[in-house]
Amino acid sequence: MALSVPTRDYLAVLLAYGAVNRASQAEVIPAESEQNFEQAKCLPVGTCVRVIPVKGPGQGRRVYTGVFGGAFKNHRGRVYELAGSKSPGRRPGPVSWFPADDYRLQLLRWPDLPEDYTGRGRFSEAFEIPAGAEKLLAGQLDDFYGRCSLHSVVVGVMNTVLAEAQVAVGASDGSGLPLQELLRLRAVRSPGSHYRSVVLSSRGDPEEYRDVVRACQPTVAVLDGAATVRRWLGAGLAGVTVAVVERTSPTALTAVDELYGNRARSVADLDVPRDLGSRIPAGVELLAWKGRGTTR
Fold first, then answer.
1. Beta bridge pairs of residue 185
2. Rg of the chain over CA atoms, in angstroms?
3. CA nearest to 133, candidates 167, 171, 164
4. How crowded is the C-beta side of 80, counted as CA atoms within 13 Å?
C-alpha cells in the first residue's frame, strides 16, 4: 500500500500499533520458538533464549534473557540454565537455574544473536501488564506480554521513530501509557528487550536485512518517508508493505515514480475495504496493489 500524506508525524508508529493490535487478537497457539524440556535438551549451548514464568504476569514477576547453558536435572530437579557474563580477565559470571516446571523456554531468533551478549550478563524485565493496556489491545494480554514475536517492522530515522513511540495514548475511560508499552518497539542491537516491533535505520543496507527479516514473517513493514521508500521499496520485508510519502518532501516526486513503477509491474490493484476507505481523512490518498511474489 502507498499513503500520500501532508505530514508523516507519528504515522509510522500508529500503523505499527494497528498491526500489533490486530495480531494480539489472533487465536493463541503455541509459538514455534517455544521449547518443552525434552526439546530444550537438544538445543545447542550458546543459543539466545528467554525464560518466562508460566503463571503469567503478576507483581514482582520477571522474564530473563541470556545465553543458554543447558536443560538438565540436578539437585533442584529439572532446570534451564542461563550462563553469566564473562568480563575481560575474569572468570565467567555465575549461572542461574530456572525450574522447568515454573518457567517456559523460548528460543530467540533475530534480532537477538549470541554475539550481542558477549561480555554482558543476563537481562531481566518486569513481566506485567501495564495499567490501561487492556483498553488499547483487544487480544490476550498474558500472551502478548509473554512472547517475543515480530509483527511489524518500521524503517525510518531511528531516533525519530523511537521518540514518537514515547507519546502517551489512552482510552477515554482508561489511564494513558506510552505507545512503546504496546508496540514493544526496539532497535536491532538492543539485546534483552522483548519485542513485537523492530525499527531499522533507513540508512542501512536493505540487502543486509532482507532474508533475515522475511524469515521472521512480520505482518507489516512500514517505510517511513519518501527517502526511505526510494531506498527500501524493493526489499519486500513483509507480506504487506505500507509506503508513507509526505508530499512536502524534496524527494517525494522520485519516491512516487518508484511507487508507480512498482505498481506497473504488479499483478493487480487491490480494492480498499469499504470500512477502511470511509475512514481515510481528507488530504490523505491511498493506493493498494498486489506485487509479484507476494504470498499474502
1. 197
2. 21
3. 171
4. 33
